[in-house]
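Morning!

This is the sequence you dropped in the shared folder:
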Amino acid sequence: MDQGSPASPDMLAALQARLHESEAANLRLQAELDATRAELEHFMHKVSHDLRAPLRHITSYGPLVREMLTDGEDPSSCLDTIDQSARHMGKMIDALLALSRLGKTALQPVPVPMGELVAEALRGARAQTGARQVEWQVAADWPVVQGDAALLREVWGHLLANALKFTRQRAVARIEIGWGAAGEGKPVRFFVQDNGVGFNPAYAGQLFGLFQRLHSATEYEGTGLGLALARQIVRRHGGEIEAEARPDQGCRVSFTLP
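The structure's back. Tokens below.
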């Protein structure tokens, strides 16, 4: 087209369509940036708050040990508390490093037979059950999804470990692993259902937060990172994860993948 020639209506329409697409893409990117910034602020607040707890134990019990030694008392109990707090703080730092590495890892999307990942995670979970009675119910005919096999395997590992942990008090643990498709072109939903201790549904939104725990650390070990990592992986795949439960009536954790 000559520089002096007017643009045709079709060309103008095409340019306007591209402009609208660019504006929509910019709005999406801005929304993602705002969400990331808000999540980072929450993350920094959470980390600074949670790391202070074991640090307070260490700094407050140190002078107490000195006093007890001066008075000829046995400081073993205080030293045990300091040791436990230091170990817990070390685990929290390791958890932060794991989350940081996940954020830097590039996705390697390939066709993934989900049934094979479930079978691998199930073998690992069964190896940890010892003498416990666990009834597994596993769906058949699993779909093939597009995703990073190593990271999705990690999701299943976290979910099965979580189910095993919170069914520990049951004489017979019952854990169901399954999936369902909402229809052509719809996300596929996968789930792990257990008959464990469950939790108050009012706190369901907190379950996937960093270092978030809905049960006492004296009853159930861990840093509360497993589900946070699972959520991060699922979201990087364009999906979502959620949990449904009732106190003492088990829990169902499900996630979607496009």
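Headline: The mean pLDDT is 80.

More detail when I'm at my desk.
O.
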